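This section describes the prediction task in plain terms. A model, or a person checking by hand, is given the sequence of a single protein chain and must write out its three-dimensional structure as a string of tokens. No templates, partner chains or ligands are provided. The sample shown here is typical of the held-out split.
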Amino acid sequence: MEFKKIKSKQTSLENLTKIDEINRLSKKLEDKLGINAEEIHQKEITKMNMELEKQEKKNYTISLSKKVIIELEEFLGDFGDFGETKSSFIQEAITQSIQNRKKQMKERLLDKIKKLEG
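The expected answer:
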């Protein structure tokens, strides 16, 4: 009986060692690839946007030049996340554009307020 307990403790220790090794190699890979918190955050936003897209959709017709569509298809083919579609990419781009414009508008308004106060 004691032999089994020792063996299970050794197995647990080996598993912990393997987990530590996996974590170390994962961190090393992230460092080599240059993955940072911002990229991870962007991927999380993309996943959330894809989930929202799956929840509720409304069709709109938009016109884009053939050149833009070809560039988009090439980009998604080379660098797109797994399962990322033209629709999800365009939706994310629009969402980010809106957020950037809101941020810029807020900064402009704050600048104007400071000028009026000063």
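For orientation: Residues 1-7 have pLDDT under 50 and may be disordered.
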